[in-house]
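Subject: mismatched residue count in predicted assembly?

I count 817 residues in my input, but I want to confirm that the predicted structure covers every chain. Input:
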Amino acid sequence: MMSEQLPLSGVRVADFTWVWAGPFCTLQLAHLGAEVIRIESESRLCVTRRIPPVADGEAGPNRCGYFNQYNQGKHSICLNLKKPEGLEVAKKLVAASDIVAENFAAGVMDRMGLGYETLKTIKPDIIMIALSGYGATGPESPYVSYGPAQVPMSGLASMTGFPDSPPMSVGFSYGDPNGGLHGAFAVLAALMHRARTGEGQYIDMSQWETSVALVGEGIMAQEMNAAAPQRMGNRDPHMAPHGLFRCEGEDRWVSIAVADDAEWQRLCALMEKPDLASDARFATLADRKDNEDALEAAVTDWTTTLSAEEATRTLQAAGLAAFPAVTNKELAEDEHLRSRPFFAELEHPEVGVRQHAGVPWNFSDTPCQVRRPAPCLGRDTEDALQRVLGYSTDEVATLKNNGVLT
Amino acid sequence: MSEHPSSMPDPQAPGPLHGIRVVECGHMVAAAYAGKLMADLGAEVIKVEEPGGDRARQRGPYPENIPHPEKSGLFLYLNTNKRGVTLDLETAQGRELFQRLVKDADVVVHNYHPTQIASLGLEYEALAQQNPKLVMTSISPFGQTGPHREYTAHDLTMWAAGGIVFLGGAGGRPDLPPLKAAGQQAGFQAGVNAGIASLGALYARLGTGRGQHVDISVQECLVAIMENNYIAWPYDQTTPSRLGFRLIPQDVLPCRDGYIYVLAVEEHQWQNAVELMGNPDWANTELFQDFVARSVNWDALKALLEDWLQDKSVHEVYHGAQQRRVPFAPVSTMGDLLKSEHLNARGFFAEIGHPEAGTLRYPGAPFKFAASPWTLRRPAPCLGQHNEEVYCGQLGLVPEELQALQETKVI
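Triage response: the counts match. Full output below for your records.
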């Protein structure tokens, strides 16, 4: 039996977030069935409504893949928070909500008159989460932070890279989604607390700290031995071979991780290289680590004769961990992901049906799926004001005429 | 700064997940991180290890680099606030004991492979029969269904399967392979997703009265986080890679005493950065006149920035930039983090003693709850440390039964 009910059915989120970390937090809540109402503004469009990729090369605030991916299932209202009437609407929305989420720099919500102490007088059990770069306190809390900066700030970059290279990025703005996910976890914990005690609360989340949480191993190494792990490319201290190996085709690679000596023997058999199987340079993990350049060259001799897919199939058939370094196109066309089904393909009024990444969890009883596409800018302004906040048609018209709903 | 609510939580207040009972099992990072997230917020987490122990015990880092199963930094970090028992799930007796353990649990979270689940007695249906309110979260590389469900994986191969490795690495160097992020990032991402899903299912239970099974695919967790890089294909059929053009001028550049991350997205940020550099003439040339020009001519710009930075300290560039609202960031080393004035002012690092590993500082609360705080109450368990407490104290076994289980190596 499957329930119509979703985990967060009946939970409403007043979503003041923008760009990425915040919207990714509220995306998780929308996936879980919360009614997430994003407060937007025509005069200060979210960055993700302005940058590529845009559908078929044609720009427009409702045509951006970035926004449409990370705002699925949400509602959008336009509100001018610089006008007192706009602020009034925002406060009414908070009064009707369970959760307030924001990711401005520390102090911005306070200055707008929407700080926690104010909102608590409007809705005593409100749960408010601030997902700032540095957290709400501490000497650097007023500093500006962008998600990509979290990779270097957290120390992840200092351990990422080739042995002879400077610290390197990880290829995307990792601090944002990671902060958003930790924020969603925190909100859910606060909801559990409220369900059992009736008490709301303020959550101060620092993207920097959620990023340091990902390098606990490195912090422990520093604490124990006053030395952090070195940059080692794709290698691993406990596995060899362990890396990306070139395959047939342009810029095609297969990732392979061999966990122990028995797996190395299986790999040698697959490669039909009995001489390697008995080669003393590669007999044990310690031997393979000592001779890793030669080891990788020997594996590359084999992988370059194969496509990344053939290499993967062969290795996986023998129980060895391998997978191609796939592109976004391969993900979009991946039969496995489609079979799950993972992708969300809903009709959007401006971009039609596009294959968005969907919900990465399959719930057996309260199945979480994307139920509506990302909203066009201000799609739900009238609906939210009337249905949720109880404004009359005339009142909405007046607010509109006064430039409050822009 | 005004006095902020987050700065005054009551450290004695119970965590928001106080009283929630979690059983965690598996290896390495994903299930353990989900368990840690819950344990650190007050849940009562029992970590069930095979008699040989979680493989994270074999990973280190170790004090003085001497391997010891009770001193692995990865294990110590991931298993704070948990109690630990041993149990051989491959034996009938072990599975029966596991059933009893799960009977009163709210959540089971594990990352055993789908091909092992039946032999370990971890099918949801079997466990739910005696505990219909049970939430069970199963983390696996590719999920419980689909043609790749039996594929085996490590963190590296998941980073590849999620499409992320293809984005990382050295731009302009097609001779070098794509590069993974350091550490066990696929595991952490799966772990936080499993934490979200577990709490989501618990919250659902408040309404439905029923538990449920949640199937989490690590691959899907990764495809979901790759910024605009996945969605570029469905929207404009482009494929970002480490070798491609990047529209954001940003890089890690060397200073006198370390590295600084330079980024100036908005025009006013760039203008302020130019001011910080003392308004050099080159900054006013056409080559760098706007965001796009600075991206296209990044190599030339980078050389000029390097020249400016070579005799500066990271500290002066970072704070000088930030005082002008320019979002530069330090490229922290682990030592920098432990010494960070900001992180320490927030009380981020949490210290606790461990009987074998001694007293160490750990990364602490990633979020500060005003009413129900994150706390570090106990260090990671030694292998089987709480066998007696849990099996006798909680399940009611008599000492002779416990001894028999030890002798038959079930625990």
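The first helix of chain B runs from residue 30 to 40. Marking this ticket as 'not a bug'.
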